[in-house]
Amino acid sequence: MSERTDQESLVSQLTALEETVETLETRVDALGAVSDELTSKEEKYAAVLELAFEKDGESDTISVGPHEIRECTGVSRRYAYDLIDAMGSSVSGCEVRDSAVVETITGTQRRTKALVVDCDVVRNQEHSSLSPREVGGRDGESESVRSSTAEIGGSSAVELDILNGLTPRGFEAYVADIWRASGYTCHLTKRGRDCGVDVVADKSDKRLLIQAKRYTSSDVGIETIQRVAGLLVDDEFAASGVLVVTTSGYTRDARQRAERINGIELVDGNELVSRGRDADLLLHGMDHGYETELTAQEVHAVLDEGEPMTTTEVADALETDPGSVLVHLESLVDKGAIRVKQLGEEYGVWYR
């Protein structure tokens, strides 16, 4: 009886753990903190396609799963799924396939997905380049705006990838510098009390409220536009206008809604990079001066001493929050670089 109770307790703890991890992943995804490496999308796409070519055999198409993508690109689990969606919608010869439902260790069920690659189609593309498909025409989807997140072969893709590698605060600082270059006095708002405003920009009697959205593959939807519209009538800010700035794009509904509201301006990823260049904000190299996200290597180095550490202890050592290190810790476990042990109600203890 006691053994059964212990097993039920363990399953309950693991279930709670799995829900906690999913919640954290959702929050990390919402912040856009999903890329482990500051490599361009073009390089990530090339690594995935190279893996598919290596697997190419008698089958007409090759299936590449998220774990394989994580292995060949070094990205997090959440980003691997984003990469599958992005390649499926932008690279000719690639499409997304939902895999069978799998059962987790806690007994819950989860559906995974895979990228299906037609190697012959990819190889036959002119100059062996990646040709983005034309996107649009369906309600709620981007009207060629997705090129701002899936642009291949141009320097914009590299710069957008670097922007997506910044911390949320680092990205806000970059946005503020763009408007400073246009003569505005800018300051970043305090966390938790920003009312959806990340940057306040003042010039003469004009005040702009800027919301910065650092997204990887998802586009800003109409819900965001509806929320920021209320800032135009908020006496606390007395705003002349509201800007929504993103590294990705906007859905058709979002753009149409913004066009009907006087005082709202939308800036997508390509325009953001263009404005950054006009402001002489160079992003190439590692000395651009903006705070970047942690890498898996930095997290791994903390555990080099060999002492077991909790998630909070790892985060404290890196002077960041637990959510920022959790994705990297899980990735390192999947790669076999570190191990994790369940300890009571703690999420776990990580060790080499």
Short description:
The protein has 14 helices and eleven strands. With 352 residues, it is of the alpha+beta class.
Q: Might you state the CATH topology name of the largest domain?
A: Trna Endonuclease, Chain: A, domain 1
Rounded mean pLDDT score = 74
* Computed structural class: alpha+beta
Distance between the termini: 36 Å
Q: What is the CATH architecture annotation of the largest domain?
A: 3-Layer(aba) Sandwich
Strand content: 15-25%
Q: Unreliable runs, pLDDT <50, ≥5 residues?
A: 27-39, 102-109, 126-154
Total helices: the number is 14
What is the helix/strand order? HHEHHEEHHHHEEEHEHEHHEHHEE
Task: Tell me the count of domains.
Answer: 3
Note the overall shape: globular
Based on the model shown, name its key terms.
352 residues; Arc Repressor Mutant, subunit A; Trna Endonuclease, Chain: A, domain 1; 3 domains; 3-stranded antiparallel beta sheet; 11 strands; 43% helix; WH_DNA-bd_sf; coiled coil
Structure characterization notes:
It comes from Halosegnis rubeus. Keywords: Coiled coil. The protein is an alpha+beta fold and 352 residues long. Helix content is 43%, strand content 18%. It is built from 14 helices and eleven strands. The strands form three sheets. A five-stranded mixed β-sheet has the order 4-5-6-7-8, with helices on both faces. The chain has a three-stranded antiparallel β-sheet with strand order 1-3-2.
Give the arrangement of secondary structure elements.
Layout: H1 2-31, H2 41-55, E1 62-64, H3 66-73, H4 77-90, E2 94-103, E3 109-117, H5 119-123, H6 147-150, H7 155-164, H8 168-180, E4 185-188, E5 199-203, E6 206-213, H9 222-229, E7 241-246, H10 252-259, E8 264-267, H11 269-278, H12 296-302, E9 309-310, H13 311-317, H14 322-334, E10 339-343, E11 346-351
Parallel strand pairs: 6-7, 7-8
Antiparallel strand pairs: 1-3, 2-3, 4-5, 5-6, 9-11, 10-11
Helix pairs in contact: 1-14, 2-3, 3-4, 8-11, 9-10, 13-14
Region (Disordered): 127-150
Biased composition (Basic and acidic residues): 135-144
Coiled coil: 7-34
